[in-house]
Amino acid sequence: MNSDLEHAQLELLGAHCAVHQLRLRYSSDDLARFGRRDVLHKSAEAAASLHDFYAAIEDKVPYSAPAPPVPEPSAEQIAQAIEWLAGYLREQREHYFPVATPLTNEVKARMWPFFSADLLDRIRVIELRGARVPVPEFFAKVRALGFEPPQITHMDSVTFLDIVAFNQSLSERSLFHALVHAVQIDVLGLQRYAELWVHGFLKTKTHFTVPLEVHAFSLSSKFLRPMPERFSVEDEVVRWVADSRY
User: Fold this and answer.
1) What is the pLDDT of residues 28-52, one digit of tens each?
2) Cross-strand pairs, 220
3) How many domains is the chain partitioned into structurally?
4) How far apart are CA 94 and CA 83, in angstroms?
């Protein structure tokens, strides 16, 4: 049951990211005025139905006290968190590299329309089959300062530069998402990527709404369409960097 629940959550997050992109690009007035009415009505009905479904469940979930307010971190704490994150990604890359394997030609063929051959040749993957990636040691220090870090063990995959570790097994959705992060790291550089990730998390408070993650979810949803159009993930990332959307 919980596996099905988590799968539904991922689908909802993909939809949430797609809607978030609409919200950033168009006003509600413009959508109501120029959007296709049949699509708007069906989307609104689906959203209302999902809200009613989850609201009915939430009413039955035992009450838990709200979490205390999160303190504002100092500039020094933010700088330290950036260094911790960049160091963790580098360390885990070195840890997994000897046991990770290249992408198969079959998988590469599926990803070629969206990623460069150079990137796909460099990427190595490892399936942990439920073993889970290690929780960063610095998370304990983050909690001691009064902050709640993201739940890394709940993620489908984690990108360690050019190594992708899957907490369960490789799937096209999670691989595509992970490869978007690999491109982001290539374009931005590890230090800038870590900086934007930390600042995004502090601003939005949740892993799934960090702009770097939002873009990965959005592009993954685009890839998973029944008849996906060909696009360059690198071009998309470069465009977001140029527009300061991260």
Assistant:
1) 877 888 788 888 888 888 888 888 8
2) none
3) 2
4) 17
